Amino acid sequence: MDFIVDPTVFEIQYETKGDLNADGLSDIVMVRRDKTNKMAIRSILVLLQNKDKSYRLDKISNLLMPVEFNKDGSKIYGTEDINIVNGELHLNFYGLAGVQGNIWGILNILGMIWC
């Protein structure tokens, strides 16, 4: 919760744990959204675990996570999923019928790969 900034405005929408940097420690990736504005950009926060079990904020991205709703207030993707697999962050967005297609993305320490 230390990385939320203002809990009256922001909340954690999604969270996943896994080893992103191959150090044997469980890192955390969170998607932070603005509770007051559903059209706001969502941020991805990458927290790497230290040996003392505390976490440090390694990266913030305001580009990887698409907005949740369109300008008409309709949800763009029916299902959104984030998880860590073999040191990579997988982002999966499954569109609603007739509204949007599906998008899959993989983020690793070397950069971003879209599939």
Considering the chains and any ligands shown, give keywords for the structure.
about 50% strand, mainly beta, four-stranded antiparallel sheet, about 120 residues
Give a brief rundown of this model.
This protein is an all-beta fold. It is built from no helices and eight strands.
The coarse silhouette is flat
Query: How are strands sequenced across the largest beta sheet?
Result: 1-2-3-4
Strand content: over 45%
Biggest beta-sheet profile: 4 strands, antiparallel
Helices and strands: which structural class?
mainly beta
**What is the radius of gyration computed over CA atoms, rounded to a whole number of angstroms?**
15 Å
Order of helices and strands: EEEEEEEE
Describe the structure.
It is a single chain. The chain has 115 residues and is an all-beta fold. Helices cover 0% and strands 50% of the residues. It is built from no helices and 8 strands. It has strands at 10-18, 27-34, 43-49, 55-61, 77-85, 88-95, 103-108, 111-114. A 4-stranded antiparallel sheet has the order 1-2-3-4, with no helix packed on it. The protein has a 4-stranded antiparallel sheet with strand order 5-6-7-8, with no helix packed on it. A hairpin with a 5-residue loop joins β3 and β4 (55-61). The protein starts with 9 loop residues before the first strand and ends with a strand. The model has no long low-confidence stretch (mean pLDDT 84).
Topology:
Layout: E1 10-18, E2 27-34, E3 43-49, E4 55-61, E5 77-85, E6 88-95, E7 103-108, E8 111-114
Antiparallel strand pairs: 1-2, 2-3, 3-4, 5-6, 6-7, 7-8
